[in-house]
Amino acid sequence: MSAEPPAVEPPAAEPPAAEPPAAEHLDVLVVGAGISGIGAARYLKVMAPGKSFAVLEAREASGGTWDLFRYPGIRSDSDLHTFGYAFKPWRDEQSIADAPRILAYLRETVAENGLEPHIRYRHKVLGASWSGERASWTVEVERTGTGERFTLTAGWIFCAGGYYRYDEGFTPDFRGRERFAGPVVHPQDWPADLEYAGRRVAVIGSGATAVTLVPAMAAEAAHVTMVQRTPTYVMPVPRKDALANALKRYLGEERGHALTRRKNIAQQRLVWSLCRRYPKAARRLIRRANVRRLPPGYPVDEHFNPPYDPWDQRLCAAPDGDLFRAVREGRASVVTGRIATFTERGLLLESGRELEADLIVTATGLNVQALGGLRLTVDGEPVRLSGTVAYKGMMLSGVPNLAYAIGYTNSSWTLKIDLLCEHFCRLLAYMDAHGHDTCRPEPADPDMPTRPFLDFGAGYVRRAVASLPRQGDRAPWLTSTSYRDDVRLLRAAGVAGPELRFTTSRSGPAT
């Protein structure tokens, strides 16, 4: 009798697939936790308390520029009564302040306003795609420590990362660089253990970084030589503002700061206006200030008389004349000429002169990068930034629900950031009040003449101008460089306008 075949159990049913977790949604995603991003977060918390927001920072710390750069002497070029926030008085006695003091001020702002829980470190925003149907951005994020990627969604993106690359400075291709026996360092990548005491240092460059580095390094180095292709305007300015400190002492910090801020805003505008309107007179005044602080018979016109007018490029500040003092005391020198090649012992100029050095610093500038390199698409179409036009200096034509923070180049950066953040929060409130979820700038005249967004002669701007947005020839497409004009445009005027198109995704166009 044959045995019955064993019964075959039916396969167990597969458990139902788990639903993927929904992506986190934020009302506003702020990119960058530097001076602009911290300011944006504070304004959102105070002026838009009902909005959910987060600040994503690719690095492991807040502070942006003031945490990233570690080279000797790093400081502001602008006074901190205007470079600081309007809502937080600058209490330090230094008006032209060094980086540690600025960083402490920024982190104090974070702590006082309870912003730390909103900041997510080591979160790099890679790209974002806009869906008009959903009226939201889908944002791709990478955790920089692990490489893990994920997405979240946001109603708005506020780009607050400035306009230069944080991971790489600009260094030209110098012939023979590999021949030099000593270290070659860019200030953006300053090694913590770099020794320069008692060594001969050559600093290539003549901009703000070089003007800062030379006197700072000259305090310990055997000698520091600033090697420049063309001169830069350098103005001696007091490190401490005696009037500001007196006002705060006698009127209190709040009132004293407010009066100093108004004074310095007017002073900045006056200096810039005089330089632009009367360039020959401004050139003579700057030269006279230089002559007074340099040794008798010094070749001022060779080393401190640029071929361009004042404020065609940014003026450099020398707090208490520190650069001139280092030159006068023989601890530093300036050489003007083109570099032919690096040599084993230093630099050979086209003139045939060789400059011996133990260490070379390439203070040769920044790499400009709009929106932190963020890749954008709108309803499936890639956004070409050079094909967009700036609206009120804070949004881009054809790109919905995206704002960015770019400060002034002819006065303190943060003066404009305060105004932009205020205006942005008012715009959010306007949209809520009228039931809109989308706004998109669109020029009424598609043939409007345009010009570069950063209309500025600095080399780092010229190198990148073709990849940046444009600006128009009329408001609101003309990017203002005047605080007074921006107060009218961004604070006093309404947020709506005929060239800002509001819609509601649920019911189509609303205006």
Automatic annotation (TrEMBL):
Keywords (alphabetical) are: FAD, Flavoprotein, Monooxygenase, Oxidoreductase
Q: Which Gene3D superfamilies does the record cross-reference, listed alphabetically?
A: FAD/NAD(P)-binding domain
Segments of skewed composition (Pro residues)? 7-19
Renumbered residue ranges of the record's region Disordered: 1-20
Q: Which cofactor does it need?
A: FAD
Please give the InterPro entries that the UniProt record associates with this protein: FAD-binding_MO (IPR051820), FAD/NAD-bd_sf (IPR036188), Flavin_mOase-like (IPR020946)
Where do the coiled-coil regions begin and end? none
Domain of life per record: Bacteria
What's this protein's family per the entry? Belongs to the FAD-binding monooxygenase family.
Name of the protein in question: NAD(P)/FAD-dependent oxidoreductase
Organism of provenance: Actinomadura luzonensis
